[in-house]
Amino acid sequence: MKRRLTPFVLAATLALPLAACGEDTPAATPSTVTVTETPEPQEAGPEQRQLTEQEIMAALPSEDEAPRGFRIDKRGFDTTTVSQRTTDPESCLALYMSTQEQRDFTKEHGGDSGAIRFSSRPGEPGSPGISIAIWSFDEPFPQEFFDQAGAALAECQDHTTQISPDDSPGEWQADAIPTPTVGDQSFGVRIGRPDVDLAIDYMWVRSGHNLIHARMITGYRQSNDQRLQKYTQGIVDELKKGTS
Question: What average pLDDT does the chain have?
Fold first, then answer.
């Protein structure tokens, strides 16, 4: 684990062939914006303060908490790579928490981070899986980044994204997914290709100085909002204990 870490590698596998994951149940059609927020407390709790590496690792789910049929994937989840993603329209970078403003904030204020990855077939590219990550910063993660993500959904339902200059651009669709209130603020989005029944569900949670994230490879016929909530809320609850 290193310092000066960044969350923006999270969407990299979206350009690869993805296998379905999760329960094959109809996805609910949300009718509201997927950014939810709770009032800021007067005094920061342990889940809102900047975290140490030890605290981050203790808050992540253990192997015993993996979804049924999943195991720890030793390929892990890299929380240190700096994003080179581009999108058209450019505002769609907010959906990936990867605008230039967000990258600058991470460069200037990033601290420790950590992640865990569970897969149904560990080691196989594109296998069904879920990754859970935490990034901690030396000042509160800005609320405006979540506001920008919610606003971007209106013009990013259809957008083009390119992971790096060497990759080919791809056409993707972004849709709101049911997003419960977790932490101070939460945002959820599904980005993928409904025509071939593949997607990645993203749930982002802001908790004071911390950014918590769960990402799940899925199909468009599946609903994963409860599972994403389970892992993000589990981290918040664990951090509230104030243990290290």
Answer: 82
